[in-house]
């Protein structure tokens, strides 16, 4: 059955909030290796050059010798990457869905980029002894228009993990905002650590835009923390800089 056409065209130069969910809201990540493999995809698929991630990461990482070999393969792949097909401005991987902030920099770049993750289903099914589709249809893309929506989307993407510790936080029920903020700084499958100056994965995120937009690492951090506090107290934090 053919897919319904999008109600809008993804335009070169535009920013988009991209969401991809597991089928029936099922998990798409069950281990650290699952997260790592997807993150390698975010980095290495962003190229005009094709890459076989299955072959690149085909050996087990369980022993030091194979881990070292895989590491060398990855370094070679990074060195030989072609020109990017999108700009990745933010990402957050949740157990059953992903959030990305992408900028279209060439015609069909976002669609081509997301299509490359089809092989993740094959990897996941083989590793976890399952069959059938992993993702729920094609990705959703929401155009981001204007400064307010840019700021809100940045905060929304990076605060998504809070629901893992505070399940009712989107209903303005946060038991401990301070602990939620600390946990967020320990959540690695996200670009938040890149934006607040903490060491994480080798960074492939285009940070300059949002760092300039907010005014630096500290104000990026405050934007996220203030949003959590706003949710915790149900009152507006000092967000005048975004108005």
UniProtKB/TrEMBL annotation:
Transposase IS200-like domain ranges (all copies): 11-160
Gene Ontology BP term (one): DNA transposition
InterPro entries, per database record: Transposase_17 (IPR002686), Transposase_17_sf (IPR036515)
Family annotation (Pfam families): Y1_Tnp
SUPFAM superfamilies listed in its UniProt record: Transposase IS200-like
GO molecular function ontology, one term from the record: transposase activity
Family matches, as PANTHER family: TRANSPOSASE IS200-LIKE DOMAIN-CONTAINING PROTEIN (PTHR34322:SF2), TRANSPOSASE, Y1_TNP DOMAIN-CONTAINING (PTHR34322)
Name recorded for this polypeptide: Transposase IS200-like domain-containing protein
Species: Candidatus Wildermuthbacteria bacterium RIFCSPHIGHO2_02_FULL_49_9
């Amino acid at each position: 059955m053919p897919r319904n056409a999008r109600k809008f065209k993804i335009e070169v130069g535009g920013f988009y909030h991209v969401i991809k969910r597991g089928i029936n809201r099922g998990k798409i990540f069950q281990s650290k290796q699952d997260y790592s493999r997807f993150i390698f995809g975010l980095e290495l698929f962003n190229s005009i050059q094709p890459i076989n991630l299955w072959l690149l990461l085909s050996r087990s990482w369980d022993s030091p010798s194979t881990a070292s070999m895989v590491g060398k393969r990855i370094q070679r792949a990074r060195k030989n990457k072609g020109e990017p097909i999108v700009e990745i401005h933010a990402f957050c991987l949740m157990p059953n869905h992903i959030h990305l902030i992408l900028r279209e920099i060439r015609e069909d770049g976002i669609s081509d980029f997301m299509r490359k993750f089809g092989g993740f289903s094959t990897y996941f099914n083989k590793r976890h002894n399952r069959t059938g589709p992993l993702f729920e249809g094609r990705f959703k893309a929401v155009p981001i228009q204007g400064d307010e929506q840019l700021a809100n989307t940045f905060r929304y993407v990076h605060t998504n993990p809070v629901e893992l510790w505070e399940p009712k936080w989107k209903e303005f029920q946060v038991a401990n905002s301070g602990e939620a903020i600390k946990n967020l700084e320990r959540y690695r499958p996200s670009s938040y650590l890149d934006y607040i100056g903490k060491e994480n994965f080798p960074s492939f995120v285009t940070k300059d835009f949002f760092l300039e937009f907010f005014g630096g690492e500290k104000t990026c951090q405050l934007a996220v923390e203030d949003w959590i506090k706003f949710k915790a107290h149900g009152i507006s934090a000092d967000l005048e800089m975004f108005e």
